[in-house]
Amino acid sequence: MEEQVTNTQPQAQTVPPVPGAIIALVFGIISLVLCWYFWFPIVGLVLNILCLVFAIMAMGKGKKAMAEFTANPTLYKPSSFNLAKVGKILGLVGVILNGILLLVAIIFTIIGGALIGASHNM
What we know:
By secondary structure, the protein is mostly helical. It contains three helices and no strands.
């Protein structure tokens, strides 16, 4: 009869991050990186709307992840709370910045269209 060898060392349990914390951070970064292309007449307008959507999603995911961590702090990595918080803050900055740049993109598109129309009428 063979004896079974058992491992007496305790297994290191990996604690998962809060669901949605990393995606909130990624969406917040995307919303801030892509918003600077507002000066392209049509593409800038589309990108700013897309960035605004990413910023709003970052705020929502970050808020949800922070609430989930607060409800059960022992289930998740403590650093993931900070990721969710930064994602939410980047989303807020993205909403404000993209809102301003969206207005600028609309003005650039209108001016660009007017200039193109004026050059064809000459």
